Amino acid sequence: MKKQIPNSISLSVFILLAVSILFVSCGKENAYSRYKSGSAKFQLKDYRGAIADFSKAIELKPEYIEAYYSRAICESKLGKTDKALADFNKVTELDPKNKNAVFNRAYYIKQQTGDYKSAVDDYNLYLKLNRDGENAFTYNNLGYCKFMLHDTLGAFHDVMTSIQLDSTNSLAYKNRAEVYLSMDSLEKACNDIEKALKLGFTKQYGEKALQLQGKYCGD
Question: Which CATH number is associated with domain 134-219?
């Protein structure tokens, strides 16, 4: 039976992968062709295959910033946090103003492993590097990390800033609800939980808001 290309994967990804394989098979292998091959495999969620290609690209070009960065993302997806951290660190060593590496090092590694203090440092650095960019998600994450460090007022300020920048982010409302709960402001917390649910929190992030509503807000 003939295989069909999944609807979620564009034809251009397959073409890119085929061209990359052709370059390698014809003896025209170079760091760029390996990087493009890895990028195509990443789009197909073949993270191990992508890592192999990015590693080869780095072998051919030891200061290939994009390859280190992309390999770090793949390693993060596979839970290889130590290796991902090393690659993100290499990117910032080669390019100290690489804001994407700074943000993703905080999000994928430091926040996820509970290194909240270091994550706060990275998010603050990212905000300095991204002054003119979209920062609602960053302030939300920064507030969450501060909350986990028991900096309630700092957390409240940052999550409030996130909501001011983007009033449709259900995660920020859930996070602010938890801050309100820690302040014994039950009515405000329940209002935020309801807002988060209306904005589609459950579909995006899971059952946490519903659990909070059931525990603190009744029916």
Answer: 1.25.40.10
